[in-house]
What does this fold into?
Amino acid sequence: MENYLFLKFIHLLGVVVFLGNIIVTGWWKFMADRTGNHRIIAFAQRQVTLTDFVFTAGGVVLVAIGGIGNAMLHHMDYLHINPSPRESPRFSHGEESGKLVLT
It folds into this structure.
């Protein structure tokens, strides 16, 4: 349970960082454009580029670590995504081990 909660925390932290950066990026650009000052706009654009690289990429990595980690923790086949609802995998309780298994 501790591993699950830790990975869930990492996943949600990644979502917050990712979405927070997207919102703040728009704000930086909007406020810089309002000044009409080309130096301020250029500075804001450099900062937007830097934060996009650091926080957006960082958020994506954290989301992936949390998601894949939890999939592995629960023995799910995360590499084969099936979008068809008719052929979606079903979960059942394993007879031998008592664990939740993907069938």
The CA atoms of residues 85 and 91 lie 14 Å apart. Strands lie at 91-93, 100-102.
